[in-house]
Amino acid sequence: PFVSKAKGLPLAKIASRVMAGEQLSKFSLKEKTKNMYAVKEAVFPFNKFPQSDVLLGPEMKSTGEVMGFDKDFGIAYSKSQISAYNSLPTKGLAFISLKNSHKDEGIDLAKELIKLNFTLCATKGTAEYIRKFGMKCKIINKVSSGRPHIVDVLDSKKIALVINTGGGNSEHRLNDAIALRRATLKNKVPYCTNMSTAMACLQGIKSLKTKKLEVNSLQDI
Questions:
Q1: CATH code where residue 75 lies
Q2: pLDDT attached to residue 55
Q3: What is the mean pLDDT of residues 49-59?
Q4: What average pLDDT does the segment 175-192 reach?
Q5: How many domains does the chain have?
Q6: Does residue 221 form part of some domain?
Q7: Residues 52, 60: Cα–Cα separation, whole Å
Q8: Domain that holds residue 16
Q9: pTM of the entire predicted model
């Protein structure tokens, strides 16, 4: 259904008729939605289960899906998040915690966040790395490092965006990660768990600040 809507083609209908013996060349396969971006987002009922872990695994957890559609990727991504009740912020305090292999990419991420009028805070290792490049970044404790820690700051409604690719196999690292994920869920803070999502999120925020968000029906495209 998603690809059919994104391409403007009744793919299931065409496939069933081809399986019944008709020639594919008989059908018009010209795309009706060229130069458009379609972003699919799953909808999860985590707010119904506040003690659940938002980390995804092989089991099915979503209860539906939405699609953001636009000529601009950032707006299409933003629409998908709005539709999934996960609207992107356009300013505020952004919390960053990155695994070592992501810290070089994280510098570009931090620079973009500052350009977009965000202030930065991070766990100690990430904050110290960001500071090496001349950017201001406040250090926030992990839960295992003592209070006040990141969950306290989230509960005080001071954080607008969380980007966390860290983690680990030790018990305290796993517990830190679970506590962070649950706190973002409880406080309805947008949360990125990998660099590709974080970069898409920044594109969405940038587009929201510079472009007009318009609503169109698929039939009008």
A1: 3.40.50.1380
A2: 66
A3: 65
A4: 89
A5: 2
A6: no
A7: 14
A8: 2-32
A9: 0.85
